[in-house]
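so my prof wants the structure for this chain in the tokens format not the other one, which i didnt know existed until like an hour ago. anyway here's the sequence
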Amino acid sequence: MVIDTSVLLAIFFEEPQAEWAVARLEEHAPDLRMSTVNLTEALIRIRDRQPRLYERIEAELLSSGIRFIPPDVRQAQIAAEARLRLPLNLGDCFAYALAAVEDCPILAIDGDFRGIDRPVLMPS
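here's what i got, hopefully its the right format
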């Protein structure tokens, strides 16, 4: 299961879907992976919105058991192609690319993932 940035932000910012997101992370814990591009996106947003809590949240995130995977050339190609044909931002494109390479679903809250050509687990 590839985690999109939106899932982590929902949890750390206590958004309405946080409980759903925590339950899905627990349910898929042994199988969680995330692009380091999405990790970067999450860390930037967390530092911007929670500067006093940043170090604690960063440590919690990095020790969470999520497998962080740096993009390779194939993922960059898939992300670029996705950006040209799907309504996804750059970070979303790298979640999409990692899911394509790893052949697994995406866990997301971001509505931009609706209707893409990969399996997506989202709140209803």
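also thought this was worth mentioning. The beta strands are 2-3, 33-35, 67-69, 106-107, 120-121.
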